[in-house]
Design a protein that fits this description.
This protein has 329 residues and is an alpha/beta fold. The chain is built from twelve helices and 15 strands. A hairpin with a 4-residue loop joins strand 1 and strand 2. Helix 6 packs across helix 7, helix 9 packs parallel to helix 11 and helix 11 packs parallel to helix 12.
Length: 329
């Protein structure tokens, strides 16, 4: 397992086994030539510092027509081709439970932000640990064939938890740990700086998953009281937009956990009303919001709380020594 070198807030490189390059992590801009874009125009994009189709889609058309030699018609054609290439490259990573995968339309999606919120011990971090392993599976085994970055704000990551999960999936635990880059964040600023360092690393190595466990904890520690709420939300929005950029530019799945807070407006009929922390800012950033709760024994229930393309259904799964699995009846 690698660690961030905290003194420089940069990522420390450790020799590790390379994951086989089954496919590229993000779609290089020169693939546009296969979609009828001429190589001269691709070169113009590269000269303007745009190297991936994912990166291209973050520019406005107005911005792109500002590049010398690219007309509006050409830019339209380029954007359309880039969108086709990127859409094709979205990967779904297995959660370890077939029921949960089906609920999510195949698994945790790259280029998206999946937020899991729920009470303590409802299975959020267990899913994070399982994804640390399943992301490294080859794509034909419903994996992401990539590395994992784990930003831990509450000290919940357990390397020894990874070992039995790796064994369950028939993988070498040492190699799996080597492909997880880990950082403990102590302040919200530190958390933000780690994300900046990570982006540089992701442009060089094949990452497929970024975990932030939990996304809001440090903001609740560093900003207290109503007077600081506006400032907190602004800083939170800044960090979330950085996460969205990482997800989209590097075709990475972002999985973030969130805490729940009491909801005084939750209604009389709900015995214990709870809502996710972070307010509207966090609600708008997450592509898919999942609500976790405890079931009986080791069983947990995951409900789709908000997602553009998924029905509001729920799935029951189980926490086992080998990670998240289907519930036994």
């Amino acid at each position: 397992m690698q660690a961030f070198n905290r003194s420089e807030e940069q990522l420390q490189l450790v020799q590790r086994e390379e994951i086989d390059d089954e496919e590229e992590l993000f779609e290089m801009i020169d693939k546009l030539t296969n979609h009828g874009i001429n190589s001269g125009d691709v070169k113009k994009l590269q000269d303007a510092g745009i190297y991936t189709c994912n990166g291209l889609m973050m520019h406005t058309k107005k911005n792109l027509t500002g590049i010398k030699g690219l007309s509006e018609a050409k830019v339209d054609k380029i954007c359309e081709a880039a969108e086709k290439i990127v859409r094709k490259s979205v990967v779904r990573i297995t959660t370890g439970s077939q029921a949960l995968d089906e609920l999510l339309g195949g698994g945790i999606e790259t280029s998206s932000i999946t937020e899991a919120f729920g009470e303590f011990r409802s299975g959020k971090t267990q899913l994070a640990h399982t994804l640390c392993v399943s992301t490294q599976l080859p794509t034909h085994m419903k994996g992401g064939n990539g590395k994992v970055a784990y930003i831990d704000t509450e000290g919940t990551f357990r390397p020894d938890r990874i070992v039995p999960i790796a064994e369950r999936f028939g993988m070498d635990a040492g190699a799996v740990l080597d492909n997880i880059i880990y950082a403990r964040a102590y302040t919200y600023e530190h958390q933000y700086n780690l994300l900046l360092g990570l982006a540089a690393k992701m442009s060089e190595e094949p990452f497929r998953l970024l975990i932030v466990d939990s996304v809001i904890a440090l903001f609740r520690v560093d900003f207290t009281g109503r007077g600081e709420l506006a400032d907190r939300q602004q800083k939170l929005a800044q960090m979330l937009s950085r996460l969205i950029k990482i997800a989209e530019e590097f075709n990475v799945a972002v999985y973030m956990t969130n805490q729940v807070i009491a909801d005084p407006g939750g209604g009389v009929f709900i015995s214990d009303p709870k809502k996710p922390a972070g307010g509207h800012v966090l609600a708008h950033a997450a592509t898919i919001r999942l609500m976790f709760r405890k079931g009986k024994g080791e069983q947990r229930v995951c409900k789709v709380f908000d997602a553009p393309n998924l029905p509001e259904a729920e799935a029951v799964f189980q926490i086992t020594a080998g990670g998240i699995a289907d519930a036994k009846d």
